Amino acid sequence: MGAKYQLLADQLREELQRNSAQKGRRLPTELELTQRYHVSRQTVRHALRLLEDEGLIRRRQGSGSYATGLIPDAPSRQIAVVASSADDYIFPTILHDVSEVFTRHGYSAAVYSSENQVSKEREILLRLLEEPICGILIEGAKTALPTPNMDLYKRLGQTGVPMVFLHGVHSGFAGAPCVASDNYGGGYQLGQYLAGQGHREIAGIFKSDDMQGLQRYHGVLSAIRDAGLPIRDVRFAWYDTEDRRRLLEEKDTSLLDSFLQNRLEDATALVCCNDEIAYHMIRALLSAGRSVPKDVAVVSFDNSYLSQLGPIPITTLGHRGRIGRAAAEHMIALLNGETPRLEFLKWELVMRSSG
Questions:
Q1: Cα four-point dihedral sign 199, 202, 205, 209
Q2: Which of 102, 137, 217, 257 is the most buried (most CB within 10 A)?
Q3: Is the pTM of this model over 0.85?
């Protein structure tokens, strides 16, 4: 037989399940529970603490305990959040915002990471086909490339489980619910800014296997073209998920060294795909004896903590809205039977010392 407080928690769970629609319903007081179930005040407190840890009740000092509306052990209140990389520097903020929205509406998040690998994404999608979830918020793996996982995406779609894409979608998902940045517009904004600062020779480095990298590159080159500046292909380089892993995990700087030796040439400005690569590129420039921004101005995307962590604060684009919150609200809208529109978050320039 379990401990008394566990037995009491079981009985209270059953009551919460019977009254799951009554979100905010006040539970009996501790004294009332001790009298009803013939247990000590300590047993009641232990049981209530257990239910609070499970998210089934909220306890307010001096007011009592209130039902959150979550159904005990109900997997249908769980939404899968699939990240392309759980160690991505912006993911903790996104997950915090997503979880906050889901919790407010009585849902919880189950987090998965594909590590931006098609094979791991396939494993996750197969698992989600077997698990009783009520929604999927997903950042696809290698969205710049055709996906062999389209068959599983279609099977998931046939189950009726709503799906919201984050940051971008594969080419076969035109019109699917998606919350992303205006990456083309952001790239254009940075290219236009650098041209306005008098830079005539502009270089760039972008991520090749995610849709964001391609869109940002396109925007930068379009701005350079419209400013009447030369587009020199040699000055634009690409890196992929494996290059990123070697840089971050193995401290392999060959990507950066090759860019400085073979690509940058006499460019006076550099557009980086995000704050992460900009942070490392600035350190490489300084190590090579180049001054930032005197010799090379550096700009990037995301306005993350990395933009202020390095030796030179980075001029970067930040969102006017919170992308994680917007994606989570789209998911809630779908679960409520609404049809949310595609949303592209605009950028605003945050000027710092790098350019």
A1: positive
A2: 137
A3: no
CA distance 214 to 308: 25
71 band by pLDDT with thresholds 50, 70 and 90: low
Cα–Cα nearest to 28, from 17, 42, 44: 44
| Digit-coded pLDDT (tens) for 111-169 | 999 999 999 999 999 999 988 889 999 999 999 999 999 999 999 988 889 999 999 88
**Distance, CA of 127 to chain centre:** 21
Q: Nearest 5°: phi and psi at 67? A: -70, 135
Assess whether the previous peptide bond of 340 is cis (omega < 30° from 0).
no
| Bridge partner residues of 165 (DSSP) | 138, 178
List, in sequence order, every residue forming a beta bridge with 113; answer none if it has no partner.
83
**CA Rg, the chain, in Å?**
25
Percent of the chain past pLDDT 90, that is, above it, reads: 61
